[in-house]
Amino acid sequence: xxxxxxTKFTVEIFDxxxxxxxxxRLDNGCIVFVEDAVRSDICDIVITKAxxxxxxxxxxxxxxxxxxxxxxxxxxxxxxxxxxxRHISYEEELFAKRKKVNDALRRIGxxxxxxxxILTTGKMNGYRNNIQLKSDGSxxxxxxxxxxxxxxxxxxxxVPEDMNRTIKHMQESGRAEQGTTLARxxxxxxxxxxIGDLTFQRSGNAFFxxxxxxxxxxxxxxxxxxxxxxxxxxxDLYCGTGTIALYLGRDAKRVIGVxxxxxxxxxxxxxxxxxxxxxxxxxxxxxxxLDVSNLTPDCITVDPxxxxxxxxLIQKITELSPSRIVYISCAPATLxxxxxxxxxxxxKRACAVDMFPRTKHVEVVVLLSKIE
Length: 372
Prior knowledge:
Blueprint: E1 8-12, E2 15-16, E3 22-25, E4 31-35, E5 42-50, E6 54-64, H1 90-107, E7 118-119, E8 130-135, E9 140-143, E10 150-152, H2 161-173, E11 181-187, E12 192-195, E13 198-201, H3 212-226, E14 233-237, H4 243-249, E15 254-259, H5 262-274, E16 280-284, E17 299-302, H6 311-320, E18 324-329, H7 332-341, E19 345-353, E20 363-370
Parallel strand pairs: 4-6, 7-19, 14-15, 14-17, 15-16, 17-18
Antiparallel strand pairs: 1-5, 2-3, 3-4, 5-6, 8-9, 8-11, 9-10, 12-13, 18-20, 19-20
Helix pairs in contact: 1-7
């Protein structure tokens, strides 16, 4: 049976896709991803994209609303691309994220270990310490989902009130020029953030976790997994401003951080000095071209961009042969892919961290140990 665009069906949603869409199955076995659907919804849908075994659809009528569905608290949720889960309970969101991570580890990574927990502060709103706004000269806001159309906003629920006051002031003062991307990123307070008992500065376009409170949960778990001893050496790749290297490296004899962003490396050196940490050194360079000839790390930590590790870097990591690897990722699928490529290592522990509440994104931290 060939499914055609604009064909209508009545379905029950039984799962979520990696992108947060509801999943249903037609009588012929075809899987349908349904926009804004919730597990246990019974709904009339219309097909918007069709392939032989996989279709996309949107809801035209809710026949029976899921017990997990809640009232949407944002007036632009249906147009703005910032949030994915404002229509479901937070408990259901955590269920979807836990399943997303476990499915990736099992199906792509071939890992039998499931995540121990999904860590969260329980704070769903007002958690972001920066956002990037867009402007077309007449409107200031965010891109609509999967487009470059700007959805105008004067308030975002993901940021604290002082940042929303700044957004409103920008709207009222008309400080937007035609074709401008407002990449002077809006911050809560300043370019100084505190995680645990350490403080970190950031400058330029240096990466920093957007949720400071949850970053501490993530780094505490990474520190637990690394289990560094005072005689050991830590190599931190994609070290950014030195947050992981310094937060974990206090437990080691020597810490080496590597990062290609020169501004971030400058910040990392300042952060080490400001926190009176004297066992850390930072190198500006491409991690994939790292000279491994004089390195003997006991533990390697990696926190790569969404695309994951390069094959060249995976080869270098296996050559270095650390006893353990702590892999932090914002992309469960590429994490799982890389786990498969790290020959000689097996997953011992894994944990999810809800760094981005009300969105489909989730962080994962995994401990890999060398197979003896």
